[in-house]
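TA notes. Do not distribute before section.
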Amino acid sequence: MASAPQEALVNADTAPAPPVVEFTWQSPDGLTLSGREWPAAKAAPKSATPPVPVLCLPGLSRNTRDFNEIAHFLQCCGHRVIALDYRGRGKSDWDPDWRNYALTVEDKDIDAAIAKLNLDRFAVLGTSRGGLHALAMGLRYPASRMAAVILNDIGPHIEMRAIHRIAATLGHHMKNDSHEEIAAKLEHTLGYQFPGFVKADWLRLAHQLASERDGHVVMDYDPALAHQLASLDDSTPTPDLWPLYEKLSDRPVLVLRGEHSDLLSPDTCRRMMESHPNAALKTVPGQGHAPVLWDGETHKTISEFLKTV
């Protein structure tokens, strides 16, 4: 498993990749937020349309490191790739008011980043919560601007049992003695969803989720984020997001679903394919929620999809 991304990078028709650039931008309410950019490795021929830039939006408690492999692959194929840390995640400022860890607030942060980066036309790759942002962005950005959407294990209907599973761990075990300790916990809680992972894969995932700080290995998000899910129970109504998905019918959509996902069901994927005139589905074998975007086959699927934009 761990060697697959390297195979993908070697096999890509690439030019040497420029170094990754870290940047910051200001939220409308004054927080300093952080992102990473992978500049395109090669220019398109003068007669060709340049590859569309790709904006990567992570999951609920995740950060830009989740996109390291796919971003490097796409930049080597000529794409400009940008990934954002939401407020309270990664290297972005924490918000003193946990109520601002809300989709409607983060939407404005994303819009401010798009304006700063002068993204006139782009595709969105959204993992889990990032895909929810992509759905909402269809109301704000026409197809001439947001040209395509890749939804990584997320759709208009979310299985609540997965939300309860996430809520049970969010904000807990924030401080650890080592990445190996985190890897063991990940394997214990998610092993059934990623049955093909070996120890090296769990350790690799642990390095994406946490970093060393003051002699400990700390999860890279504000534990106050857990308040967003703390009040959910089985009686909480599931929001109807299908109208947002229907708004994307004027642009191509690629849906990635982990074979063992407990959040995005096969039935939801089936309806997504039936109700969209230009949607495609890729099932990522041996993975759950959410596919880690490391393997060469998924890289190729995303790259081929973007060539159609």
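Switch to the second chain here.
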Amino acid sequence: MRTFDEDLFRKGLEKRKETLGAEYVEKSFENADDLTRGFQEAMTAWCWGFGWGDEAIEPKTRSMMNLAMLGALGKMHEWEIHCRGALNNGVTKEEIRAIVHVVAIYCGVPQAHECFRVARKVLDEAGL
């Protein structure tokens, strides 16, 4: 029994694949087990269906917001995933640089240094 709206799940699955890539999302579900499957489904419905599915904010802007928030929180694994997604949503190398500058101003230079380290890895992988 699912504890979320099936339409939000389908919408979220589409949005999640558009941003993070179908291969990544499908692998996340393939690797889910009895402990994590419900979370994967609920997170897809809530975060991606309800959150990313709200079209008041375009995906590029939402990606930029995510990078700033995840950078501020120091969630570098998620920052890396969303940095790739931001590129998929049209965020440029220069915009990523500017976002990390904001992280430095409001969250500190050490955190910005971590964001730049991860950004360099992602940008190198993307050939940018």
